[in-house]
Structure prediction request, 117 residues.
Amino acid sequence: MNKKYGKIGAFTKESLSKQKPRPGLIEPEFLLSMAEVLAFGAAKYAKDNWKLCTKENIDLYWDAHDRHVLAYKMGEKIDHETKICHLAHAACNLMFIQHIMNRSSKQEARIKELNEK
Prediction:
């Protein structure tokens, strides 16, 4: 028995909500490969240029994600242009999509709040 969470492996909603984020659980090599993709993109385009994308053209990132995953599944592990694993590219695209969706949700909530006043 785990005193903090009760039975090990049987997490409750309450016990999980008390946990703090644990970045140490993320594989460091995975983060480094994502950082390499981001550095390549910053040099090729501009630092943080992906943050300019909006919900209206988010399909660009979904398509890029899908291309990288498909390439990986078809046996091409490394992107020809960057020499970085396709999965790191796919992960970056998911990060971009999450950022865009979170930003859009916050903007929509703010607009709704202002309209209700």
